[in-house]
């Protein structure tokens, strides 16, 4: 039984390219989620309470984000990646090795937050060419959140 065509004003080629880009964004976001959750569990030191709480807020927000990104991929007519092996191939973020110090956790999270921003920003030419405003809105919101989070984390390293 053939599926109904998707006729939302974005051609098949553009939808596929955008979905592939969003799949990379999903992989980066999920990898960041997993790293942040890991650091929440394993952080130690004088900033424990602050970082434990902050990391929980961050991974909770990321959990919602992965759902929004995956649902946008589905809206465009493609399957969202959902396995560790798929994410490992698609992500631009390196997994932490062992349990870093609290300061190293912050530094790694800044780099990862910025990587997500770069991945999101790289989608703009495709999205703009296709007049895909819903995806543009989604990635703009993601960029704002990740840029702000990177700034807040960097602020912890000053002084």
Automatic annotation (TrEMBL):
Ranges for domain Ferritin/DPS come to 20-158
Q: Please name the SUPFAM superfamilies in this protein's record.
A: Ferritin-like (SSF47240)
* Top-level taxon of origin: Bacteria
Tell me one Pfam family matched here. Answer: Ferritin
* Family (UniProt): Belongs to the Dps family.
**Protein name, per record:** DNA starvation/stationary phase protection protein
* The organism of origin for this protein: Phormidium yuhuli AB48
């Amino acid at each position: 039984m053939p599926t109904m065509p998707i006729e939302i004003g974005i051609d098949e080629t553009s939808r596929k390219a955008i979905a592939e880009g969003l799949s990379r964004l999903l992989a980066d976001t999920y990898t960041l989620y997993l790293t942040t959750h890991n650091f929440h569990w394993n952080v130690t030191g004088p900033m424990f309470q602050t970082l434990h709480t902050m990391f929980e807020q961050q991974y909770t927000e990321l959990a919602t984000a992965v759902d929004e990104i995956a649902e946008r991929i589905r809206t465009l007519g493609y399957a969202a990646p959902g396995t560790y092996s798929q994410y490992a191939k698609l992500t631009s973020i390196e997994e932490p090795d062992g349990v870093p110090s609290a300061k190293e956790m912050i530094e790694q999270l800044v780099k990862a937050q910025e990587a997500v921003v770069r991945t999101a920003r790289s989608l703009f030419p495709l999205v703009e060419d296709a007049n895909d405003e819903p995806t543009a809105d989604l990635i703009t919101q993601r960029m704002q959140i990740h840029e702000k989070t990177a700034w807040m984390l960097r602020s912890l390293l000053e002084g």
